[in-house]
């Protein structure tokens, strides 16, 4: 893709501690982002004001599975761990609860799988249901912003930021994944760096669009 456009994407299931800060930062910067949230997230009464705030802000709100299921084996990706019936019921339940917020299926065509982990079978089942499975773009450590110090794959916020900077010449059409909230065990929250990140990427003349706008071009 030749256009200097980035889709900033946030996923959420259990945690939303960064939600208000993220929403306010995006609003101040006049940026629209995309949020893929589980049914667990949409049903959480504590998160309802945030969801409505994001919708009012014209951000893209999509599905991330209902119960944040693991679809396939971590070491053998071709090994699907759930039946097609369970997959369809779970994804349908995610879309059903989204309707409570006035989000119709035809307004949320794109679907990001839980754990951002899937195989060809899952992609085919998604397509058969009328949705398009997407994933984040590889090349940075942004998706590691959920890690905690006790994990082997822990990455500090500064390490994540530097990985984005190292890739900054190759972000055209990039889907940059972050999390709307993380475990309390992670004190070094990457979302606090969001204003700095947006300013940096804007200085390189990148524009931010929703996944809908990015992928429909």
- How many β-strand runs? 7
Average of per-residue pLDDT values:
97
Poorly predicted residue ranges: none
CATH superfamily: Glycoside hydrolase/deacetylase
CATH fold category name:
TIM Barrel
The profile of the biggest β sheet is: 5 strands, parallel
Rg value: 17 Å
Overall structural class, as computed from helix and strand content, comes to alpha/beta
Distance linking N and C termini: 10 Å
What percentage of residues falls in helices of 4 or more residues? 25-40%
Strand content: 5-15%
Number of domains: 1
CATH C-level class: Alpha Beta
Q: How would you describe the shape?
A: globular
List the total number of helices: 8
What's the architecture, going by CATH? Alpha-Beta Barrel
Q: Based on the structure, what is the oligomeric state of the protein chains?
A: single chain
Describe the structure in brief.
This protein has 217 residues and is of the alpha/beta class. 34% of the residues lie in helices and 13% in strands. The chain is built from 8 helices and 7 strands.
Fill in the keyword field for this structure.
5-stranded parallel sheet, TIM Barrel, alpha/beta, 217 residues, single chain, 7 strands, two-stranded parallel sheet, 8 helices
What's the helix and strand layout?
Elements: E1 5-12, H1 19-29, E2 34-37, H2 39-43, H3 48-56, E3 60-63, H4 84-98, E4 110-111, H5 120-128, E5 132-133, H6 157-166, E6 174-179, H7 194-203, E7 207-209, H8 211-215
């Amino acid at each position: 893709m030749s256009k200097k456009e980035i889709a900033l994407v946030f996923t959420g299931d259990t945690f939303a501690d960064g939600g208000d800060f993220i929403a306010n930062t995006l609003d101040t910067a006049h940026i629209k982002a995309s949020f893929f949230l589980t049914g667990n997230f949409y049903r959480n009464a504590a998160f309802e004001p945030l969801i409505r705030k994001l919708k009012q802000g014209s951000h893209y709100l999509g599905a991330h599975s209902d119960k944040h299921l693991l679809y396939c084996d971590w070491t053998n990706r071709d090994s699907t761990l759930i039946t097609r019936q369970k997959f369809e019921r779970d994804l349908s339940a995610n879309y059903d609860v989204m309707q409570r917020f006035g989000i119709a299926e035809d307004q949320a065509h794109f679907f990001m799988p839980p754990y951002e982990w899937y195989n060809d079978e899952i992609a085919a089942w998604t397509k058969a249901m009328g949705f398009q499975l997407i994933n984040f773009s590889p090349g940075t450590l942004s998706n590691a912003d959920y890690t905690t110090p006790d994990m082997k794959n822990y990455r500090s916020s500064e390490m994540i930021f530097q990985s984005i900077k190292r890739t900054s010449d190759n972000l055209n059409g990039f889907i940059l994944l972050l999390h709307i909230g993380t475990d309390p065990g992670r004190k070094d929250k990457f979302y606090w760096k969001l204003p700095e990140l947006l300013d940096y990427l804007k200085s390189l003349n990148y524009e931010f669009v929703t996944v809908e706008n990015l992928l429909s071009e």
